[in-house]
Automatic annotation (TrEMBL):
Protein name in UniProt: AB hydrolase-1 domain-containing protein
Stretches the record annotates as Disordered: 270-297
Organism: Streptomyces enissocaesilis
Domain AB hydrolase-1, chain residue ranges per copy: 23-266
SUPFAM superfamilies: alpha/beta-Hydrolases
PANTHER family from the UniProt entry: AB HYDROLASE SUPERFAMILY PROTEIN YCLE (PTHR43798:SF31), MONOACYLGLYCEROL LIPASE (PTHR43798)
InterPro entries linked to this entry: AB_hydrolase_1, AB_hydrolase_fold, AB_hydrolase_sf, Peptidase_S33
Keyword Cell membrane listed: no
UniProt keyword terms in alphabetical order: Hydrolase
Record-stated family: Belongs to the peptidase S33 family.
Lineage: Bacteria, Bacillati, Actinomycetota, Actinomycetes, Kitasatosporales
Record flagged with keyword ATP-binding: no
């Protein structure tokens, strides 16, 4: 079921519901991109009602600002209200994990559980980005000259921008099968909605000015159960998330061996097992799970 929620200031968003059961709202990565979590929705739809949406100015949502973290939180709440949901599980991926965290801090009474997938923590970008940049260049491999050439241009055509993104996204799928990685990246880019650079620039700039100390204190008061899900082969160093894990009072962490930034792609069974509610289990805990089709799930 596809719907068009309205934000508080009248912007139109794209949203879709699949499955039945307790509600799970997905928050896609970016910022400036669109929902690429269709496979996650398919994995969960036999046990939950899954809600996907394109963030403001992105994908199928109205291309209209302004863009901010608080505005993104308000837009997410507009999606919740549109579907008449009293409280939800939030599953955020990458930047969407940060958005889901900010929503939980602002509206803890509306969040039953937070699933923080492949995020980069609450510390400064300088703590992890140089290592990520080095890892990315290595993972792009023989396509690096082409990627760098596209990236250095002031203006890209839509086709060039898409090609640049596909080359970069393919690096996020680990393993020797680079044809598979390229196919998965092509799938993420199809259909192509174009990157909203204004949205990305403004939100990234805002997050870089946020106080790590204040976020740490706020997270320490969050009384929402959280599970952090990492792919051990993510190009973004997973140590960047440690301070967030240490700040949260009710948190578990699962690392999927052999998985990358989109861990459901390499280990779908392990991913579902990690994000599914763990009955009778609360509080801190770390777990490493073997990746691949034979992973625990």
């Amino acid at each position: 079921m596809t719907m068009t929620p309205k934000t508080d200031d009248g912007a139109t968003l794209w949203a879709e519901r699949t499955g039945t059961g307790d509600p799970v709202v997905l928050c896609h990565g970016g910022p400036g991109l669109w929902d690429t979590l269709e496979d996650v929705a398919a994995l969960l739809a036999d046990r939950t009602a899954v809600y996907r949406w394109d963030q403001r100015g992105c994908g199928r949502s109205e291309r209209r600002g302004p863009y901010s973290v608080a505005g993104s939180v308000a837009d997410l709440d507009a999606v919740r209200r549109h579907f008449g949901l009293e409280s939800v599980t939030l599953l955020g991926h990458s930047w969407g994990a940060r958005l889901a965290l900010h929503y939980a801090l602002a509206h803890p009474e509306r969040v039953t559980r937070l699933v923080y997938v492949s995020g980069t923590g609450i510390g400064p970008d300088s703590a992890w980005h140089p290592e990520f940049a080095s890892n990315l260049r290595s993972a792009i491999g023989e396509d690096l000259p082409r990627w760098e050439g596209l990236r250095s241009r002031e203006r890209l055509t839509e086709a060039e921008e898409r090609e640049m993104c596909v080359l970069q996204w393919a690096a996020d799928f680990p393993g020797p099968d680079r044809e598979r990685a390229r196919a998965l990246a092509e799938r993420m880019a199809t259909p192509w909605f174009g990157v909203n650079s204004e949205c990305r620039t403004e939100i990234v700039a805002e997050t870089r000015t946020m106080s790590e100390h204040q976020l740490h204190v706020a997270c320490g008061g969050l009384r929402v159960p959280v599970v952090i899900v990492d792919g051990a082969q993510d190009l973004r160093p997973r140590g960047a998330v440690d301070s967030l894990e240490q700040a949260l009072p009710d948190v578990g962490r699962v690392t999927l061996a052999g998985a990358g930034h989109m861990p459901w792609a390499e280990d779908p069974a392990g991913f579902v097992s990690a994000v599914a509610p763990q009955r009778g289990r609360r509080g801190r805990g770390r777990e490493e799970r073997p990746g691949g089709a034979c992973g625990r799930g």
